[in-house]
Specification:
This protein has a 6-stranded mixed sheet, with helices on both faces. Helix content is about 40%, strand content about 30%. The chain folds into 2 domains: about 5-135 and about 310-330, Nucleotidyltransferase, domain 5; about 145-305, 2-Layer Sandwich (Nucleotidyltransferase, domain 5), CATH 3.30.420.40. With about 325 residues, it is of the alpha+beta class. Bound molecules: adenosine-5'-triphosphate and magnesium ion.
Length: about 325
């Protein structure tokens, strides 16, 4: 029987197979290229079309900020991903699947995930709030361990939570992530450098030179079109110029993190303080960011080995464990 953990991220979908062969079997952008009603491409191929097609083709991310905003496209995308990993619809019906959902997701958000699972024929789907997966992905065994404080910054959502074997002690998810940083970088380059740039270029600026390290060096030649002449143009952007576009969102996240910490019972607070914070999510790959969070929270930090895959790796651990699925699985109406 197939066992799959699915992390339907706002930026990237990751699938882990946890039966005979085990490991990450898929990591693809969570996007679909559409022209009118017609689906033109899915995943990598769709993302590759950004900037290369006529305006008639739109690139849609059906999971936006952790919520399924376009069920039809989300179903088409996930079905295609299943076919890419070679699992047949008949096997899917019997497969044990675990699907990560944002921390504290509302019933209407959960209902979206339930509909998606149903329409994809995942009859044995279990929904688990992401902080449990992040903790497991950080290599912590929830059953044995003390409460775990984790922060995951993804493309569209940040989860901040303290989880224990008994459940969520305090936590929340907020619609802040790498996408906000990309938008702000884009707006800044337009305002300061007089250059219109696309979403992909803004993301590359963040991933290639974004840094919260002091004296961050590095430069990137961004290409786009001149605000004045509207003609193709380029400009060199220095790492230090985009630091604020990143830090402003991290500071916001830290405000929420402090609020979560303030809610903790004294003994839990003491444990968390002793054990530190576990960090995951693609955005944590920004140099200096984990150190910055540790310094601001005044606690030790542990960066997951593969921050972007921590959630799905944790899902892979839990989907094998029947007792954990019963304990952490969420009931849906
Ligand atoms: N090397 C890197 N440096 C900086 N940012 C990065 C790097 N690699 C990926 N990212 C960013 O990480 C984000 C994606 O992370 P991740 O895959 O954890 O998000 P997701 O799970 O798809 O989304 P979410 O959890 O928010 O629904 C994107 O904003 C991407 O630009
Ligand atoms: Mg994620």
């Amino acid at each position: 029987m197939w066992k799959l953990a699915i992390d339907l991220g706002s930026s990237m979908t990751k699938i882990y197979r946890a039966d005979t062969s085990s490991g990450i079997v898929l990591a693809e952008p969570s996007c679909v290229a559409v022209s009118g009603e017609e689906i033109k491409a899915i995943g990598k191929e769709a993302k590759n079309l950004i900037g290369k097609t006529a305006e008639l083709t739109n690139i849609i991310y059906p999971v936006y900020e952790g919520e399924i905003v376009d069920l039809r496209l989300a179903v088409a995308m996930l079905k295609e991903f299943f076919s890419r990993i070679g699992v047949k619809p008949s096997a899917l019906r019997r497969a044990q699947t675990l699907i990560g959902v944002p921390c504290g997701a509302s019933q209407s958000v959960l209902a979206g995930y339930a509909s998606l699972a149903e329409e994809c024929g995942l009859y044995k789907a279990v929904f688990v709030e992401q902080p449990y997966l992040e903790a497991a992905g950080a290599g912590v065994s929830l059953r044995e361990a003390d409460p775990v404080f984790c922060i995951d910054i993804g493309g569209g959502v940040t989860n901040v939570a303290v989880v224990s074997a008994d459940g969520l002690i305090a936590g929340l998810s907020m619609n802040i992530g790498g996408n906000n940083m990309d938008h702000t970088i884009r707006a800044r380059v337009e305002r300061v450098n007089g250059l219109h740039i696309g979403a992909l270029t803004a993301e590359r600026l963040k991933t290639e030179i974004g840094s919260l390290q002091q004296n961050a060096r590095g430069a990137f030649v961004a290409e786009g079109s001149s605000v004045d002449t509207l003609r193709p143009a380029s400009t060199s952007v220095q790492a230090c110029e985009i630091t604020d576009c990143i830090r402003m969102y991290v500071d916001k996240i830290l405000e929420y993190a402090s609020a979560v910490l303030r809610k903790l019972p004294a003994e839990v607070a003491a444990t968390v303080n002793r054990n530190g914070v576990f960090l995951s999510g693609g955005v944590m790959k920004i140099p200096g960011l984990p150190q910055y969070i540790g310094a601001r929270l005044e606690m030790r930090y542990h960066l997951c080995e593969e921050p972007q895959y921590a959630t799905v790796l944790g899902g892979g651990t839990l989907v094998r464990d029947k007792a954990a699925l019963i304990q952490y699985g969420k009931e849906l109406d």
